[in-house]
Amino acid sequence: MRHLISIADLSREEALEVLATAEHMAQTQSRAIRKLPTLVGTTVVNLFFEDSTRTRISFEAAAKRLSADVINFSAKGSSISKGESLKDTALTLQAMGADAVVVRSGSSGAAHLLAHAGWIDQPIVNAGDGAHEHPTQALLDAFTMRRHLRPGDPHTGLDGLHVVIVGDVLHSRVARSNVLLLTLLGARVTLVAPPALVPVGASAWPCEISYDLDAALATGPDAVMMLRVQHERMVGGGFFPTAGEYSRRYGLSAARAASLPEHAIVMHPGPMNRGFEIAGSVADSPRSVIVEQVASGVFVRMAVLYHLLATDAREATRDR
Amino acid sequence: MTSHHPAPETGAERSRVLGPEEIRRALTRIAHEILESDHGAEDLVLLGIPHRGVPLAGRLAELIARAEGRPEGSDLESLHGSLDITMHRDDLRHNPTRAPSPTRIPAAGIDGRTVVLVDDVLYSGRTVRAALDALSAIGRPAAVRLAVLVDRGHRELPIRADHVGKNLPTARSERVHVQLVETDGTDAVDIVRPGGRGPGEGRA
Fold it and tell me: Which positions ≥6 away from A76 have C-beta within 8 Å?
């Protein structure tokens, strides 16, 4: 693993290795001293062109728990807002001695461009690029699901599980990364969305697509993942008739949650629109693992940074 | 710690240093030494360093329990565990990434107790240094000791073992290859000397 751009670049073995390492990281985080010396002397740059709270803080916490230095670089208040290009930003970071760059961008493909354009030769971690992918979110979701639905064995996949992902699939990089990862790990995925919020080409994805939430929930899924309706990307509107109708047809109400199997968990990548795509009482119910997803995020990102940074890939191959 | 990969047999010469019986005797002696130096197993915790230190710590715990006259099959979980050191190594950047192994500390913890670190081979001492660092993140033992099956010399740090199964003078180019029933199906310690072709990989 040289970069983490897309789940599609991972094999099942690599994905399971990251999850196993994340379990180990979780174990170290229950100790008296939580900081590990592993990445001491390395610098991780968080390059965020888009607003983000939990992903940036999560990456920052993960890097710091491994003793890396962290530089936060956000578009607001930087030369990006003066019109500097991605290329010049990359060259600057390279010159400053960044050892890894975590990038969040509104443009699909930004992370891939940064990794492969030859501007910078450090590992790149995609922290969300447009409507393309958000691989660490999918890894933390799989990690959380495994802990609840396949407890005990840190090397097992998600074989045989059924996961329903509901909502604004069109704008969701979380949905795309999750479809790829969950199916890679052996789960069956059903996407549920209003027709206008299903992306073109989704029929080629390795999952089922439904427009009827109640029918999908009636099949007794093991996990239901609600997606945030991304109003800020719905310029012009017209994706669904009214907010009320969306909430009625695609929101996870208390009644819908009550119809789920006893063991089923409810997830949301955050930030939530309470009372819209998910009822507040469901988000706070015992079957909701939404807060735990945030904790898992730190463990998974520690694992990813460890795999990308602990070994200098060029040096290790040269020595052998 | 020696390389844990099977030896590249081409052109290499292998000689047996310890067989199953000698390993059993060495561990029995170490178990008695540990008991004598600490006046009983009351506050003792044996922590194996993955991978081969872990089964060795388990065997020592069993031998100590037997020597103390504990009933056969009594609970040893409180006496031994494992301590992963991957995140504390100083040579991570130069080696292929390895997935960490689990750390298992007995429920009573290590604060105020005597911890005996257990490994198969003592070589540069860097593994033990990493283990000491890992330990300090978990608690504050009253004392830390080191037990190894084989001491092959060539220390790079001021570290020595308290209990040694076998002192084995080696050349740096040689490799010490330890096999245990639990991990490899057989008990044996071999020295592998590089043949005419290619350098040995006897690194720590």
Answer: none
